[in-house]
Amino acid sequence: MADTVNKTLDPQLDRRGFLKGCTMAAAALGLSDAMIPKLVEAAATAERPRVIWLHFQECTGCTESLLRASHPDLARLILDIISLDYHETIMAAAGHQAEHNLQETVNNHPFILVVEGAIPTKDGGIYCKIAGKTAMDILAEVAPKASAIIAIGTCAAFGGVQAASPNPTGAVGVQDLVSGKPIINIPGCPPNPIAFLGTVLHYLTFKRLPALDSLNRPLFAYGRRIHDHCERRAHFDEGRFVEQYGDEFHKLGYCLYKVGCKGPETFNSCPAVRFNDVDVWPVSVGHGCVGCSEPNFWDTMTPFYERLPMVKIPGAGIVDNADKIGKTVLGATAAAVGIHAAVGIGKRIITGKKSEE
Amino acid sequence: MATYEKHHAWSILLRLFHWMFALSIVFLVVTGFYINNPWTNTMIEGSASFPMATMRFMHYIAAYTFSAAVAIRLFLYIFGNAQERVWDILPISGRNLNNLKMTLLNYSYISDEHDSRLGHNIMAGTSYLITFVIALTMILSGFFMLYPEATFWQGWGVKVFGSQQSARFIHHILMWWFMIFPVIHIYLCIWNDCKGPEGLISSIFTGVKFKHKA
Ligand code: HEM
Ligand code: HEM
Ligand code: SF4
């Protein structure tokens, strides 16, 4: 029987908040409202799946955005439907006791592994160590025993900002090191808590992982292009653009394409689900999308305020804009054509030869 | 006075390919530039002039024409006449490599000798092959951007390009080839026409070239 009257759950989470959280997740997953009771039942069963949450090279922003959701019910719901056996930011245990808890779960129970942060691999992985062990070793120890792995945030999914060129620590995402396990990527910097909650609830309800795209991101959250759901899209089609931040067109709420919005290249649910329960997301408050849920966004989406990345000129160590280089090459080509023609004419005058007849 | 003979060089399908290709490229470059930097800024709200949507629409129509042209050329590389098949221009056989060397010397005014052929010389042929490969990359990256949610294109695209943004970047940089290549191409066609009365330029309309009677 579902415990919807809230006997085993956090007493601060009331029934209303609980149902609200499940409903939000159902909406994000695109489930019909007939499914909500199932979600509620799955979320309220006494057997909460054990979760081990590993932090590697990261800023803890994913955890922060998850737990500090302005609407506390969401965070509480997440913490209530799972049993968080090891999470460095919020666990009560410390030192040897914490490590003992980790070992105890890994060796004796089925569990879901959540990884936050990239894993440095250079120089034997020494750039991230916890309890004297490298992140690589910890992952290699824990991952093979997990029933599924959720890589939360762009760092754990694709390497994140510490993998930015020249990637000094050799940082990589979980999927580059672990194989043979179901891996779900929930990228974003940070990702929307709803994407995480939806994935967990889907797993609890249907006992399998949600459908994924070819980058292993759940389709319910990453299946649509931001640009195709954006409230400024009509301005894009009408050719009305902000030319500069703060100009009159910016005040009128025009499309941010020309000031570098990466919505056309980015897959995420931001325009539909929005953030912090106050219905905002970057574009709604006047800033272009920076493409934070795409692989290599730190290299391919920068400069953030221009449409396309700069081109590195090999050898010269300079970066420049593609069109400037293109114009230079085109100019050089035209000059070469001119010289070729001039030489031909010159030669004909000197040798006095006519073209063949 | 030398005597010339009329030879049929290009099938009608090849000529159709050429003009579909060349005309669609003009549209693709112009609308592509506009997509990158939409310089008109409709300032009157509700004017419904739709410039961005229109430019993209034209880009896609031209893109389908371009793709059809490339498909025709692929067919002709395999099933075309002797001049059109890929073996006639691949710079791998001894005969073709020799032609490449002689053409290079001739074009740089070092030698007056000239290995005349009915089909393309190998320098031209190689540049057409490069153009063909770049055209395929434009098509792949373009359709990946156009249908990002279709599993078919996503599967390919993510493997080949990594992300939409990288596809767009490659699509944009390679566009410059389609501006640089025609400059050289049209110049060399005119240059050839001035040097030898083969009727080279008209051959791409009529399919007929003129050769010395042996
Ligand atoms: C010679 C061939 C082509 C040229 C020169 C060309 C040029 C361009 C350029 C310059 C852009 C703008 C990219 C940017 O800087 O933001 C673009 C965008 C695009 N092109 Fe092409 N293109 C060609 C062929 C194709 C083909 C074959 C397709 C296939 C459908 C295609 C589909 C697209 C799409 C979908 C976009 C993105 C439009 C948007 O997101 O609004 N292109 N093209
Ligand atoms: C007014 C403009 C043009 C003229 C007069 C022209 C003329 C010609 C001629 C005479 C040939 C045959 C050359 C030979 O036998 O080697 C040819 C072939 C070719 N042209 Fe053009 N051309 C023009 C524009 C373009 C443009 C804009 C493009 C594409 C960017 C283009 C791409 C090609 C290609 C790929 C071939 C090789 C055909 C094949 O695959 O067999 N042309 N053109
Ligand atoms: S603001 Fe960005 S996502 Fe929205 S329509 Fe413009 S380019 Fe697309």
Overall tally of domains of chain B:
1
Order of helices and strands of chain B: EHHHHHHHHE
Separate helix tally of chain A: 14
Overall SS class of chain B: mainly alpha
Task: Work out the number of β strands of chain B.
Answer: 2
Shape of chain A: globular
Helix content of chain B: 55-70%
Biggest interface and which pair forms it?
A: A-B, 51 and 47 residues
Can you give a write-up of this model?
The complex is a heterodimer of chains A (357) and B (214). By secondary structure, chain A is an alpha/beta fold. Chain A folds into two domains: 2-222, NADH:ubiquinone oxidoreductase-like, 20kDa subunit (Rossmann fold, 3-Layer(aba) Sandwich), CATH 3.40.50.700; 226-356, Cytochrome-c3 hydrogenase, C-terminal domain (Cytochrome-c3 Hydrogenase, Chain A, domain 2), CATH 4.10.480.10. Helix content of chain A is 38%, strand content 11%. Chain A has 14 helices and eleven strands. In chain A, the strands form four sheets. A five-stranded parallel sheet of chain A has the order 2-1-3-7-9, sandwiched between helices. In chain A, strands 4-8 form a two-stranded antiparallel ribbon. In chain A, strand 5 and strand 6 form a beta hairpin. In chain A, helix 1 (15-29) packs across helix 2 (36-44). The termini of chain A are far apart. The mean pLDDT of chain A is 87. With 214 residues, chain B is mainly alpha-helical. Chain B has a single domain (11-38, 47-212), classed as Up-down Bundle (Fumarate Reductase Cytochrome B subunit), CATH 1.20.950.20. Helix content of chain B is 66%, strand content 5%. Chain B contains eight helices and two strands. A two-stranded antiparallel ribbon of chain B has the order 1-2. In chain B, helix 4 crosses helix 5. The longest helix of chain B has 29 residues, at 51-79. Chains A and B meet through helix 14 of A and helix 2, helix 5, helix 6 and helix 7 of B. The structure holds protoporphyrin IX containing FE (2 copies) and iron/sulfur cluster (SF4).
